[in-house]
Amino acid sequence: MSTLKPFVYDAGALIAAERNQVAFWRAHRSYLTAGGVPLVPAPVVSQAWRDGARQAQIARLLSGCDVPPLDHPLARSVGELLGQADTSDPVDGAVAVIAARLGARVFTSDPGDIQHLLDHLGPAGKHARVWPLR
């Protein structure tokens, strides 16, 4: 049985890839080598994607990731979380809900925002971990 924890990337991770940050790429490659497939929620892609011709690094990153859609049940869960946490960012909400469901590590440039959301998910949110990008 694998003990490999799922990774969830927020827009900060995509920006780190675009900026070619060595530490981020090293962690990403190590995870892939270990057999992991990072998740990038679809709203995160829409937050970071602007021009495919100029975002080759993000395209390269996404080619090794799964991009779960924001379907109706997930959208409702995100909306409920935002109401409970008194926040309004559905992208961060999607990241937090998916991470909590999977007990994932979240690579984020907004650790405080994501942790705030995870805290409002009760016991499920305690299984996810925030990994700040530097």
How many helical elements?
7
Instruction: Spell the H/E element sequence.
Output: EHHHHHHEHE
- How confident overall, as mean pLDDT? 95
The Cα radius of gyration reads: 14 Å
What's the end-to-end separation, in Å? Answer: 32 Å
Q: What's the short story on this structure?
A:
The protein is mostly helical and 134 residues long.
Description:
The mean pLDDT is 95. The protein is mainly α and 134 residues long. The chain is globular, with a radius of gyration of 14 Å. The protein is built from seven helices and three strands, in the order E-H-H-H-H-H-H-E-H-E.
Task: Summarize this structure as a short list of keywords or feature phrases.
about 130 residues, mainly alpha, three-stranded parallel sheet, 7 helices, globular
Tell me the layout of helices and strands:
Elements (H helix, E strand, L loop, with lengths): L6 E3 L1 H8 L3 H12 L8 H7 L7 H7 L9 H14 L4 H13 L2 E4 L2 H9 L9 E4 L2
Parallel strand pairs: 1-2, 2-3
Helix pairs in contact: 1-3, 1-4, 5-6, 6-7
